[in-house]
Specification:
This protein is of the alpha+beta class. The protein contains seven helices and ten strands.
């Protein structure tokens, strides 16, 4: 067999041994790269931002714990709230007002500030005040459990941190079931509450974020 035939046979053998590349298999690499890029991208929704913050804070497991709260069916006439505990009471904040959740870190005290302002901290170079919600809401203080979290909320162009005892879960509440602030709640405490929600027959006090973070309101 001459050299030309040997070379031709060798090429045929190599082509038969190579896997067939279909359009689907060729698309795997760009799709994988796209997924990788998406995984490193900044969260695109408030809920994704919360989940990212919870992952960084090491409290993602609690998010799917149905023993505490369960989400209602998704409807267009509903809102999502992050539920958390302060003392023995349960509160909620609209997730559209939340940037992320972080673990408590070193806080620098600031002189001549109200007692409910624990101090300030640096969040990726941004200085934000931290508000102790137990003191803010006039609740009894108990020993720390290690479940405390700082819920970073946004108001226009500024950020504030709300120190809470435990973050529970995101729940969906139908808009037509939200209740107004009861008349029995009077005075400044009424300014901190925007309404009452229910999830699995449990009352959730919905916080008025703008008033809660207003250090001139006390």
């Amino acid at each position: 067999m001459d050299l030309a035939k040997i070379r031709k046979k060798s090429l045929q053998t190599a082509e038969e041994a190579a896997p067939t590349r279909t359009f689907a298999s060729m698309a795997v690499v760009p799709l994988f790269e796209s997924a990788m890029l998406k995984s490193f991208a900044e969260p695109r929704t408030p809920l994704e931002a919360i989940l990212a913050g919870r992952t960084a804070a090491g409290c993602n497991a609690a998010l799917t714990d149905a023993d505490d709260f369960t989400s209602a069916d998704s409807t267009e006439s509903s809102r999502e709230f992050l539920c958390f505990r302060v003392s023995d009471e349960f509160y909620g904040i609209d997730i559209m007002e939340i940037k992320e959740i972080i673990k408590p870190r070193d806080i620098t005290e600031v002189p001549r500030t109200p007692a409910f302002v624990s101090g300030i901290l640096s969040l990726r170079g941004v200085i934000i005040p931290v508000i102790d919600m137990r003191i803010r809401l006039g609740l009894v203080r108990s020993a720390q459990t290690g479940k405390e979290r700082v819920v970073v909320v946004k108001q226009q162009n500024s950020l504030s941190g709300l120190l809470v005892d435990e973050v529970l879960q995101v729940v969906r509440i139908k808009t037509d079931t939200l209740e107004a602030v009861p008349p029995v709640i009077d005075g400044i405490n009424r300014d901190f509450i925007s309404g009452i929600g229910r999830s699995d027959d449990r009352l959730i006090i919905l916080l008025h974020v703008e008033n809660s973070t207003d250090i001139d309101l006390y």
